[in-house]
Amino acid sequence: MLTQPPLPPQYETLTDEEMTAAILDHKRRFGSRLVILGHHYQRDEVIRLADFDGDSLKLSQIGAAQRDAEFIVFCGVHFMAESADILTDDRVKVILPDLSAGCSMADMADIDQVLDAWDFITGECGVKVVPITYVNSTASIKAFCGENGGACCTSSNARAVIEWAFKQGDRVMFLPDQHLGRNTAYAMGIPLDRMPIYDPDLEHGGLSHQEVRDAKVLLWKGYCSVHMVFTPEDCDELRRTDPQCKIVVHPECEWSVVQKADLAGSTGFIIKTINDAQPGSRWAIGTEINLVSRLANRHTDRSVHVLGGLSCLCSTMSQIDLRHLLWVLDELADGRVVNQINVPPEVERLAIVALERMLANVTAQPAGLSG
Fold it and tell me: What is the DSSP letter of 340?
């Protein structure tokens, strides 16, 4: 693992206004050679300085399309910067402002554990198993899927990719997020008892030989800590206190929460739903607080708040701040590239295969779950 060095002490004394002015000055000086990307879950002060904002895949694609770019500063988390490095050519240097900005979900799928699981599952099933990984995963997991006939997916095209997978084989191994896999497969008509969870900390994943053979989708025991805070009780309480309020949640939420929500879908789907909502309508959203707050501030003619009134902050995403962004740009201005993210060539080659299979199944519009 890469380690983030402490920032020089002078950055602690700078005000937000001073840092913002210095970052804007760097942007003017670098011009089109520099592209700053900001994920939806970033803090507002960082998003305001980004050249583009969006979800992780969209941002990686945008970065790759900037032909004059020499430096891409990805204000997100580690796996996102890896994807940007995979999709850009070798002359582009991808930089993560704070190396401590990881993703606990992505880290739940360790490549050695996945390889052990693959040997056990494929040996037991006796039929073709297709591995599918959520794009929120490490480059090594993407490469594993590319090498073994599988693909990546996003929360917006997970259904299309799983449908594709069942045309390639008889079983799907879905990782690392069990909830996206379960919610998507359930909406496709696959019963819960055909989707056992593989726990990498238990022998044979804690599954019997028969459970593996009877499975249709094998779910990895991974999850997003942000979306796990929402509960079915939050939905019940809202129905009691504000029955006119609609609930829209991300499919990284637990199955029981998705079942009680009015709508469930990707970040893009959530944004589109609120953008298209009628003035005066009321919405509770089950996703990261920075995005919910941004939508609420953008649409003051409708009520928008987080489900359950929770402060569901993505703590690793919030590691990226003005100080770290200014530091990497100061270093660039002095001719030093710090915090560069480099995916090994062989991993990149195989990961691209999985990403290309995913891109072939990207839906035209941000998708919600449907049965």
Answer: B
* The token pair that represents 296 in the structure block: 């609420």
The encoded tokens of residue 218 equal: 């094998």
Domains and CATH numbers, the chain: 9-102+316-333 (3.40.50.10800), 106-224+350-359 (no CATH), 227-309 (3.40.50.10800)
* Tens of pLDDT, residues 243-292: 999 999 999 999 999 999 999 999 999 999 999 999 999 999 999 999 99
DSSP state of 306: E
- With 0.90 as the threshold, say if the pTM is over it: yes
Residue ranges with strand state E in the chain: 34-39, 52-54, 71-75, 93-95, 129-134, 151-153, 171-175, 197-198, 217-220, 246-249, 263-264, 282-286, 303-306
Compute the distance between CA of residue 166 and CA of residue 170 in angstroms, rounded to an integer: 6
